[in-house]
Predict the 3D structure of the following.
Amino acid sequence: MLIFPLKPQQASTFSVAWDHLFYFLTAITVFFSALIFAAIFIFAIKYRRRSKDEIPRQIEGNLKLELIWTIIPALLCVVMFVWASRLFIENSIPPAASTEVFVVAKQWMWKVQHPEGPREINDLHVPVGVPIKLTMTSEDVIHDFAVPAFRIKRDVVPGMYSTEWFEATSTGRFHLFCDQYCGMGHSHMVGWIDVMPQDEYARWLTSQMQAEPMAAAGQKLFNQLGCDSCHAQTGPKGPSLRGIVGQTIRMQNGQTRLVDDAFLREAIIDPQPIAGYPNVMPTFQGQVSEDQILQLIAYIKSLGGPPERKGTKP
Amino acid sequence: MSTATVEVPALPEVHYLNVNYGWRSWLFTTDHKRIAWLYLVSITFFFVVGGVAATLMRLNLIEPQGSLVEPATYNKLFTVHGLIMIFFFLAPAVPTVLGNFAIPIVIGARDVAFPKLNLLSWYLFIAGGGVFLYAVISGGVDTGWTFYTPLSTTYVNTNVLSAAMGIFISGFSSILTGLNFAVTIHKMRAPGMTWFRLPLFIWSMYAASLIFILAMPVIAITMVLIMLERIFHVGIFDPALGGDPILFQHLFWFFGHPEVYILILPSMGVISELVAAFSRRRVFGYSFVAFSSVAIAVISFLVWGHHMFVSGQSIYAGLVFSALSFAVAIPSAVKVFNWTATMYQGSVSYDAPMLYALGFIGLFTIGGLTGLFLASMAADIHLHDTYFVIAHFHYIMVGGAVMGYLGGLHYWWPKMTGRLYPETWARLSALIIFVGFNLTFGPQFILGYLGMPRRYAVYPPEFQALNVLSSAGASILAVGYVIPLIYMIWSLRYGPIAGPNPWGAKGLEWETSSPPPTHNFHETPIVTEEAYAYGARQEAHVA
Ligand code: HEM
Ligand SMILES: [Cu+2]
Ligand SMILES: [Cu+2]
């Protein structure tokens, strides 16, 4: 038994693919380092100075060699670039069937909300074998959601949503670190990912008694904040929000925007004029927290049905 | 000192160190060689301060819960360590000490192009350093050397303003130094010293000067923007004020990446000199090495986004930055291969400067290759902001740049002082530094791969063993740095007289006396041969 591990745990689908790339890069590093070290040692010993006034034969250079040691590394670089970029791109889009979880970071803790309602702090329970998509934002400075066992990491930036995803392949507890320096408590901003068997996870979800689903909490907020006075189906002032998610809408300045999480967040914090409506939506910046915005969004997303408004196109 | 028949060299009667005495003759000097000494003393002081901060950090990390200081203090330690080592030690080290001393002599000039401006640069450096030290003493600053927003502009309440001010001021020092060197290299070369007869040190310094001139204004502006947002709450970077935090990262790294080449390029130049002198060989593939410096300088301005792969930058931008980062690796590799090839069939001696040079080549190779992990977008996901990055850049900056600086300092020391340092001690400490360095930073590659984040004052216990190993290595490294400090000072007085050319090296600086006269040469030298013309009869072989 070693006193320290030499390899991080491998607990997600991505970590397997990542490790292959890492081994390849390590092999290249070891090979070229060994080559240079060996050359240095051999030359230093074989061609050591034997007399004080020794003048060796002079060699100007060698074009063929220069080409060889430019082209071979360049080709290897192309291989690394293509391999790593493909892996990055493939992994940047979460599978369509992902379960969503929402993360709000603040100095110095992780707040997690599950759509079904449970909320956690510095802890995230997930089922094994299910792709999980995290939608993350920060209330203050930049943080970073990193899980070494899954080989994932993504900055959590105030004022925007960033996403990352993973599919755990083994159950257990894995470290969650904040990897972006975020002030005094940075090194205390650690938590755990609890990967559970699927049935156990289902029991865990239902055992969180008081939990209110995010959409339901969002609906309450929607009424409390008076959104419904303008956005009720019959309301004259604002557009109906039914079925808008995923639609493309026209703004007053002629641009079109896709309605996604980021757009909805912006519509609440910093509303922009939309074609066909009076420009009356007030800003809610400072009145709703990032957690509440996520709940409002969950509610708006839960309003299914065909879009019932002018100006949208699929 | 081999046989008894060797004539005992004597110091020249009048040289730049004894033409006049008194503090005025130093603080108002415009002699580039004396200004080099002013810098040498100042940056050594800063190196000690930065080193003390590093020592405290390594002590703290011996135990997972932090054995020495509170996290708030730890955060100040790494911020101060990073800022001092980058801005007040390493960036000025080779250029302002070795560059100032050697550039004019090596190209056969009497001084730099603007001697008074050169002195002004030093005063600006001291002013900036003073303001920065004030920030440190009056409470410290804890933003990390990267000053990421909105943390630095809205959330921390330490001395961000004075720290930023210190960097702002010292930035002008670097700009003026860069300007001075670039003009000197263009205009002051001795008759016959054509561009392709220049020693490669000059090519590197020229490339680094260009980066100074182009990159330092960007950091100066960025510091001003930080101050504006902090004082007047102008919404530039903080989203709560309508700003964009990612914009800051673009600005910072647009400066920051070229900055790391400011740190390494001058040392690369030194290594070319050392490898040539101690192999008695013209640098293999001279023009490839020369142009690779220029290529590095140019490409280094186009790769800043590789620090932002996981920050929310678009994938397309990431792809371009990744590709260009690989591109910058190639000229670096070309240099390593050419240095190594220079030793082939050479006459290799093991004098201390050469040991440093060999250490540089090995450690820079590892640092550069591990950079490829970080240039690979997917690999960077897991490694970014972990100890892997810390290990990578220390291999480049300490294993590479600092080794190059120490090698160069030993190489030109006899010229600067007229005396030799004790060779055995010097070889020993080069060895100690090499071993201590690898013990300190080698384990950090593994730590980063295991996932230990950087800038952690406390950490989970499973990382302890490697951290203890690293701290143990650091204590060896510290010994390696203290020994030269002692024997260098000793040699000022007691070192054997060196004579004009103790290494039997080629180059104009070895043709004048040690120490040189104030105007470097009694007669303007005329250059008739290329650099490193070691061969008695100059035959161009194509082996
Ligand atoms: C000699 C030139 C050196 C330079 C230019 C240098 C540069 C840096 C920089 C830029 C950082 C990042 C600071 C930040 O994250 O804000 C850093 C961090 C660090 N350095 Fe150095 N360093 C040097 C020497 C050393 C030495 C000799 C040691 C060990 C004895 C050391 C140990 C550390 C440690 C422990 C960290 C903090 C890692 C973290 O918590 O993120 N450094 N250094
Ligand atoms: Cu953090
Ligand atoms: Cu960079």
Observations:
- The two ends of chain A are 60 Å apart (CA to CA).
- The domain at 214-303 of chain A is CATH 1.10.760.10 (Cytochrome Bc1 Complex; Chain D, domain 2).
